[in-house]
Design goal:
The structure is a single chain. This protein has 24 helices and 27 strands. It has about 675 residues and is of the alpha/beta class. It has an eight-stranded mixed β-barrel with strand order 19-20-22-23-24-25-26-27, surrounded by four helices. Helix 2 links the parallel strand 1 and strand 2. The longest helix has about 40 residues. The structure holds ligand C2E and calcium ion (2 copies). One calcium ion binds next to loops.
Length: about 675
């Protein structure tokens, strides 16, 4: 019977066992079974025997761990009592030892596991698991932290970083949002008292680290803690505390690696990871948008980087507000990345973030952004996605500010085509197949011819390749340096000849690319060509695009100064498409502004949009600069420009660019017509 009972319930402190029962050795047999078969080791056994002759040998006593041996006559009431109590006491000591042994083992295991958990979330989740296991409680609880360092997430308040069981929903929120005042109160109490609190229905454990981070673990069950358990808990606390600091360190490293510290946005690496994940999970309808702030570099130079940072922060905030459910990241300096569904990331929605002017140290700035867009669709890597978005972005940058471009496959083909085109361009240049054409520039006041703009032409197998296709390639490959010098020389020779054939004070405007200007020997190159062609600086005008003019202020200023000193004139080309401030123009001391054709196009009899030309003309007037309108195609435009005080114009309405072999004939006829007209 006893064996039967012990098979089902092993939790006995003492067994008082008669040696002689059914048989002479029934007691000893049972003792053997208890130890060897049932493997019950901790339970104490007291043997009792009637006759001394039945006493077991010492060897048996040792083998079966028999704790006491008493003859029947010895067992007085008082002796029985002392025997039993001492047996029970030693049993409970064994149990306590065992508990702390397994407790220690689980603490070591838990700490080891906690050390390998990455990030607060996992760690905190692990803490709930380990603590509830240690205290034999159901796995239900909350972990709150109050981090020592200024973390925007948890500033001031306790923040829930892990929750298990019925609390799962309150994860990643301030504790105050939890609507159970009892729990919230207890947690706050543990935080202010800085100690563990044990209640009937719940338990609050407090942990602090050497780095002054604090963590409160709320477990949703009361527990009566024995003093052994208490010691274990203390030990565990120390371990957890060390782990917390370790995790904090990890989090911070993670934070630095994946988050832009200034804007508090995910960075490029993080963006790539999320995009990669979206690709792997084959999430449908995912749009990637890269937004680049137009002319941010030059703006930064004018207002200073600190103010520039203020603008970036404002934009970051606007984007986050506008797209709360989408990924908003900082990809690089002034480029932001968005990831989300196509519908919400439509170009207008993104552009709307720039609608209101930006404020910074009392001044307002109107910014615009250019978008490169690509849909996630079968790309192999996130890097490929970003590269595609970048191709689209570059393309968009070629048109007006504030525009956007969707990526499509042909663009990649186009890059291959660009390589072949560059090879062909090199060949054409070497073979002398490029030539310059000259578009007359006229005074709007009296229609007088005052000069020409020289434009490069390339005819390949009888087909024209537009400069807008080959100049950028020449620029990015550096070929423009030699092309540009050749264009300058050719244009100077042409103007020399034309001037010799009439008595007009004609000049030639040569387009100069930013790449050329950046050459350290640019001025020397000018000098050389003026000398070789026997021409004069004052016959030469350099057309420089606005974007370059706004680059590095002091260098540009010095360069422009040298050019003007020599007598050449400087004109800002494509004016209005980039960013310029009044003070810039003033400091640069250029001679004229060229209103870009895209603005002239908008001067139409129906709904004319003349705001920009008007502003530019006023600007020219206040800075005493000449203003030239390019791309004039209609009488209406001419009349409007004239009425609004524009000085010069060129365009198909007056004359198309003229081939070099026809230019002298054209000039002679033009002079003849003018002569007979007057
Ligand atoms: P750009 O300097 O703004 O040149 C004006 C462009 O407008 C020229 O195009 C010209 O042919 C065109 N144009 C002039 N009047 C009209 C008009 O009434 N209607 C229309 N539709 N177009 C008109 P092109 O020659 O194709 O040159 C395009 C751009 O290529 C130029 O823009 C300039 O940025 C660049 N480029 C041309 N030649 C050179 C060069 O020798 N060196 C450099 N660096 N760039 C050049
Ligand atoms: Ca030009
Ligand atoms: Ca232009």
């Amino acid at each position: 019977d006893a064996r039967e009972i012990l098979q089902h319930n092993r939790d006995f402190a003492v067994i008082l066992l008669d040696v002689v029962m059914e048989t002479d050795s029934a007691g000893l047999d049972l003792a053997r079974d208890i130890r060897e078969e049932l493997k019950i080791r901790d339970t104490r056994i007291i043997l009792r025997t009637g006759q001394p002759g039945y006493a077991p040998e010492l060897e048996t006593i040792a083998r079966y761990e028999i704790n006491d041996y008493k003859a029947k006559s010895e067992l007085t009431r008082i002796k029985l009592f002392t025997s039993l109590t001492s047996a029970i006491r030693s049993y409970s000591q064994i149990k306590a030892l065992e508990l702390s042994k397994s407790g220690l083992e689980s603490i070591i295991k838990a700490s080891k596991e906690l050390l390998y958990l990455r990030g607060y979330d996992e760690f905190a989740q692990g803490v709930i698991t380990q603590l509830t296991a240690l205290l034999h409680l159901p796995k239900e609880g909350i972990v709150c932290v109050k981090k020592s360092r200024s973390d925007p997430l948890s500033a001031g308040d306790l923040y829930v970083i892990a929750a298990a069981g019925k609390f799962s929903a309150c994860i990643r929120q301030p504790l105050s949002t939890l609507n159970d005042p009892n729990i919230v109160d207890s947690i706050y109490r543990a935080a202010t008292d800085k100690k563990h609190l044990f209640f009937d229905t719940h338990t609050c454990l407090y942990f602090a680290t050497p780095d002054e981070a604090e963590m409160i673990v709320y477990l949703n069950a009361g527990t009566e803690i024995s003093s052994e358990e208490h010691q274990l808990l203390e030990l565990f606390s120390h371990n957890i505390a060390a782990c917390i600091d370790n995790v904090t360190l990890l989090e911070q490293r993670h934070e630095y690696a994946y988050r832009d510290q200034m804007l508090g946005l995910p960075n490029r690496l993080s963006f790539l990871q999320v995009v990669e994940k979206a690709l792997q999970d084959k999430v449908e309808d995912q749009q990637v948008v890269l937004i680049d702030i137009d002319q941010f570099g030059p703006l930064n130079d004018t207002i200073g980087t600190e103010n520039g940072d203020v603008l970036l922060k404002q934009l970051a905030k606007r984007l986050r507000h506008r797209f709360p459910n989408h990924l908003v990241a900082r990809i690089s300096g002034d480029t932001f990345g968005l990831l989300g569904d196509q519908e919400s990331l439509q170009p207008e929605h993104v552009q709307a973030a720039f609608e209101k002017p930006f404020l910074c140290s009392g001044a307002t700035h109107t910014l615009s952004g250019t978008q490169g867009r690509v849909l996630l669709h079968k790309q192999k890597t996130a890097t490929e996605v970003i590269a595609q978005a970048n191709v689209a972005l570059k393309r968009a940058k070629q048109s007006l500010r504030g525009s956007f471009q969707n990526f499509h496959r042909e663009m990649l083909l186009e890059t291959e085509e660009r390589v072949t085109l560059l090879q062909k361009l090199r060949q054409a240049f070497d073979d002398g197949k490029l030539y310059m054409v000259y578009q007359p520039k006229l005074s709007l006041r009296d229609g007088q011819l005052c000069g020409f703009e020289s434009l490069m032409r390339w005819k390949d197998d009888g087909k024209f390749i537009p400069p807008l296709d080959f100049i950028p390639i020449a620029e990015s490959s550096g070929l423009i340096v030699s092309l540009g010098e050749w264009a300058l020389q050719t244009s100077l020779e042409a103007i020399g000849k034309l001037r010799a054939s009439c008595d007009l004070d004609l000049s030639v405007a040569v387009n100069v690319s930013a790449v050329q200007l950046a050459q350290p020997d640019f001025i020397a190159m000018l000098d050389k060509n003026i000398k070789h062609t026997g021409t004069e600086y004052k016959w030469l005008e350099l057309e420089i695009t606005e974007s370059f003019a706004m680059e590095d202020m002091t260098t540009v200023q010095a360069l422009f100064h040298e050019i003007r000193e020599r007598g050449a004139r400087i004109s800002i080309d494509d004016f209005g498409t980039g960013f310029s401030s009044l003070s810039y123009l003033e400091q640069l001391q250029v001679n004229s502004l060229k209103i870009d054709k895209s603005f002239i196009d908008r001067i139409t009899p129906q709904n004319p949009d003349t705001r920009l030309p008007k502003t530019i003309l006023q600007l020219g007037q206040s800075l005493a600069l000449e203003v030239v309108a390019e791309g004039v195609e209609t009488a209406f435009q001419e009349a409007w420009l004239k009425d609004n005080g524009c000085h010069f114009a060129q365009g198909y309405y007056f004359e198309r660019p003229i081939d070099p072999q026809n230019i002298e004939v054209w000039l002679a006829r033009h002079l003849e017509q003018r002569g007979s007209a007057s």
